[in-house]
Amino acid sequence: MTDFHPLVKRLLDGEVTLADLPPALRAEGEEALRLLAAVDRERVVVSPALDERVMTAVRSRAAAPSAWRWLNRPREIRVRLRPWMLAPALAAAAALVLLVARPTPPLPLAPRMVTVRFVLVAPEAHQVAVAGTFNQWDAGATPLLRAGAPGVWTATLTLPAGNHQYAFVVDGARWVPDPAAPTVNDGFGRRNSVLTL
Amino acid sequence: MTIRVSILLVVVATVAAPLRAQQDVAARLAGRVPQEVIALVRQLSADAAARGLPVEPLIQKAIEGGAKAVPADRIAAAVRGVVVQLDGAAAALADAGLTPPDTETIAAGAFALNAGLDGRDVASLARVAGRANRATIALRVAGTLSALGVPAAETVTLVSEMMRAGRGPAELTALPARLQAEVARGATPAQAATGLARAAAAPGRSPQPPRRGPPPRPPN
Amino acid sequence: MQAVLAGDTERYAELVGRYRDRYARYAARMLGSADAAEDAVQDAFIRAYDQLAQCREPDNFVGWFFLILRNRCLAEQRRARGAVSLDAAGAVAAKERPDGAVEANEQRHALQRALLGLTPEQREVFVLKHVEGMSYDDIAERLGTSVPSLKMRMHRAYDRLRAHLRDQA
Fold first, then answer.
1. Which of these, A110, A103, A100, lies nearest to A161 by C-alpha position?
2. Which of B10, B114, B173 is facing A196, going by the closest CB pair?
3. I need a labelling partner for C95 at 20 to 30 A (CA). Which of A31, B83, B149, B188 fits?
4. pTM of the predicted model over 0.80
5. Under DSSP, is residue B77 helix (H, G, I), strand (E, B) or coil?
């Protein structure tokens, strides 16, 4: 079993054309192009019933009273930078809490909402998410995005005031508490990070 | 008129919440945890709700176990552990005179217990707080301080001093961050807490005078 | 997006309609089954709605929704690891082209089967570039990785595909 010649791979990548290949590689090049031609690019049409199933689920969530309903009347919050502690070396983590506010008298029932930015410095990671009490511990629900500085991942959320527990999930499987945040026993032999807003 | 409507809504919300939560248990856990865990959590929730305990912490713990791919028996043990902490917190609050204890305060107390405080610490803080919403915040903050490594005695002292000095919820909630800043400067958690407690009781910073009447509405 | 954030739930249906086919194809090629793809896309839209309340960067919805869907597909593949049914590939490629030659259809089936033999990461870069038509730079930005590492993955994919197809022939 032989691998494709590097030049043929560049052909597959679209960087060179068949004409650029030396005669000895033409046959291999044509084989490669036949491979690409077999790719199924046909649009997949999803049944419209999917829309209805999504909206049914969505409507029942909207109907259930929950903290997120209060976003209709966004509460404003205070600005304060928490000291950002960057642990040295790889896979260090820091939580930067940004509280943004304008003074408004709170309504008796509306929970105060606070904007929080989660930051993880993890240059070795391929994907990072945050999972906690605010998103049903769903490691797929709140991915962090690369922030621009190398190895820095962030996500910004608006959470109701109160106690939240969370952890970062690195590469889909590794649960990593936030070393710069207070931690508690999770009852399963690991630690959860605590966010008190 | 407005106030009365608000109180009515609070009452309805407090009663409706546990009932709804129960029906929700199966729906919220479906597909996330094994069947036997769902059955157990439903039963424990029903019992807990009947005792006036909040049900949400049980559901959250089960969901967490499912998400972390923990075996069913460990999830069951953890959920039972949560019930024990909730009962412990409720008892401590009752001792402190907060009867009947409200579910948010119980949950905060359970958090404090999980973070390393004990029933007497919870009761002590609740006594100083005097009423449910202050106790809720005090317990959340105390639990967080304990999670940062502050020993129980210093935690209780610091949070109590802050409350006695009339500091409000915002300042209490800010304590953990201030403590972390002190620790970053080289103090141990215990030293940092003691320092902050002294600062809280310091003269020259008079507590806010109690508000009279509704707060002024901001211009639209 | 702002409308949905402001509480107008029904507007979410517009988002679903606008993006679902676009992402269904990616999910179908990744999971090898139209049914699995529909489930993944449906699930991702519901999760995205749950998180919408907390998403503070609504302009980023596309990139962020894609990551939710991607995670869902990767989780699904991990769950199904070792149990990938080659018949599933048939289910996707089963939409025979009315005008197509039998041989062309067989080649499509064969390639989809071969695709399912790649690792999820290899399959993903291949699908994004050769099915979705994205450039290496765009893929790198979307996945948060570097172009050289993508090319390395892709070139291994090419070789494995070649080997699979030869074995099948």
1. A110
2. B173
3. A31
4. no
5. helix
